[in-house]
From TrEMBL, chain A:
Keywords: Cell membrane, Membrane, NAD, Oxidoreductase, Quinone, Transmembrane, Transmembrane helix. This is NADH-quinone oxidoreductase subunit J. PANTHER family: NADH-QUINONE OXIDOREDUCTASE SUBUNIT J, NADH-UBIQUINONE OXIDOREDUCTASE CHAIN 6. Residues 241-272 are annotated as: Disordered. Belongs to the complex I subunit 6 family. It is a multi-pass membrane protein. It comes from Mumia zhuanghuii. GO terms for molecular function: NADH dehydrogenase (ubiquinone) activity; oxidoreductase activity; quinone binding. One of its GO terms (cellular component) is plasma membrane. It catalyses: a quinone + NADH + 5 H(+)(in) = a quinol + NAD(+) + 4 H(+)(out). It is found in: Cell membrane. Its EC number is 7.1.1.-.
Automatic annotation (TrEMBL), chain B:
The keyword Acetylation does not apply. GO terms for molecular function: NADH dehydrogenase (quinone) (non-electrogenic) activity; quinone binding. One of its GO terms (biological process) is ATP synthesis coupled electron transport. Its EC number is 7.1.1.-. It is a multi-pass membrane protein. NDH-1 shuttles electrons from NADH, via FMN and iron-sulfur (Fe-S) centers, to quinones in the respiratory chain. The immediate electron acceptor for the enzyme in this species is believed to be a menaquinone. Couples the redox reaction to proton translocation (for every two electrons transferred, four hydrogen ions are translocated across the cytoplasmic membrane), and thus conserves the redox energy in a proton gradient. This is NADH-quinone oxidoreductase subunit K. It comes from the Bacteria. Belongs to the complex I subunit 4L family. One of its GO terms (cellular component) is plasma membrane.
Length: 272, 99
């Protein structure tokens, strides 16, 4: 009984967490705690098969399905606190507490009679006993389960399927579109320029240099630009200034180059 | 081991799940609360199986698990298809049939 009194508070707190937490992901994690604790309760009550099934099917499969759909639908959505029916929340809580009170105080005390225990029923092993019941007395229910599962699979397929409303765009269509944009707006049809490459930096945040020494705006990612972390022109100034700065960093920084005035030197500077 | 604490805990979990279904607006959380209620029922099934000394309760709990798995698959597919058309998983937003 010690295990029960250890687990029960955890389960109740986690169940309250399912209901009360603002984020759906936290609810899902609390529900996983409840389910694993339930599996332990099954193990305590001579139900080893259900213990395994609870962990494998519920915690393993169903909870993962929940989390998967949560990630698909958007994790950062929190519940709105606006009530569409006035006073519905309060009434629901009061009625729910009354319901729980009645259940716990009345129904839970109503059981009379000695506890038989499963020692006799589990004599051949729990799985053996369950199989005997499942394939004799409950065999029609078992067969109906197969129909249910097939229906569920079909239902999920039908509901998740999406009809393609427009024809698939081929590579030719995309190329034509690109040329159309070039003709109308003058948008360059080729690749965007790659960012500058400097050994001292993560290259993606350094804009590429244009032939006239200025930086190319479109060579860096728009996200980085909006975040303001682009090293705008950190190395785009005069090449001789850059060289002096590099040399000031110390000799281990690398080679001291010939005078940085020739165009060839300019190229070399870029892939230092 | 007595039976009453298990039944009491199961009743408590069921009531918490019921409150959650009534209070929460996010369809996925509502689904989780339904799962909580199903699990609470499973706990009382297993407990009564032990109390009566036969395995019928455990078979019932097993069937509940199968039904819950099927229900979750279809329910989540419905949520995904609603989200796809309405960009929202709130149960309050799907109210076109209301007068």
């Amino acid at each position: 009984m010690t295990a029960f009194w250890l687990l029960a508070p955890i389960m109740v707190v986690a169940a309250l967490g399912v209901v009360l937490s603002r984020k759906a992901v936290h609810s899902a994690l609390c529900l996983a705690v409840v389910m694993i604790s339930l599996a332990m309760m099954y193990a305590m009550q001579d139900a080893p098969f259900l213990f395994a099934v609870q962990i494998i099917v519920y915690t393993g499969a169903i909870m993962m399905l929940f989390l998967f759909v949560l990630m698909l639908v958007g994790v950062d959505k929190t519940d709105s606190l606006v009530e569409t029916i006035k006073g519905q929340r309060l009434v629901a809580i009061v009625l729910g507490l009354l319901f729980g009170g009645v259940l716990v105080t009345v129904v839970a005390q109503a059981f009379v009679g000695p506890v038989v225990g499963l020692g006799e029923a589990n004599a051949d092993g729990n799985v053996h006993g369950l199989a005997k019941l499942l394939f004799n007395r409950y065999v029609f229910a078992f067969e109906a389960t197969s129909a249910l599962l097939i229906t569920a699979v079909l239902g999920a397929m039908v509901l998740a399927h999406r009809e393609r409303l427009e024809p698939r765009r081929t590579q030719r269509d995309l190329a034509l579109e690109r040329m159309q944009r070039y003709a109308e707006h003058g948008e360059h049809p080729g690749n965007l320029p790659t960012p500058g490459v400097y050994a001292r930096h993560n290259a993606v945040d350094v804009p590429a240099l244009l032939p006239d020494g200025s930086t190319s705006e479109i060579s860096t990612s728009k996200t980085l630009r909006d975040r303001g972390v682009v090293r705008d022109g950190a190395f785009a100034g005069d090449v001789s200034v850059t060289m002096r700065r590099l040399e000031a960093d110390g000799p281990e920084r690398g080679r001291v180059e010939p005078p940085p005035s020739t165009p060839a030197r300019h190229d070399g500077e870029e892939d230092l | 081991m007595t039976v009453e604490p298990f039944i009491g805990l199961s009743a408590l979990l069921f009531a918490i799940g019921a409150i959650g279904v009534l209070v929460r607006r996010n369809a996925i959380v509502v689904f989780m609360c339904v799962e909580l209620m199903l699990n609470a029922c499973n706990l009382s099934f297993v407990t009564f199986a032990r109390a009566h000394g036969n395995l019928d309760g455990q078979v019932a709990a097993f069937f509940v698990m199968v039904v819950a798995a099927a229900e979750v698959v279809v329910g989540l597919a419905i949520i995904v298809s609603i989200f796809r058309t309405r960009r929202s998983a709130s149960v309050d937003d799907a109210s076109l049939l209301k007068l």
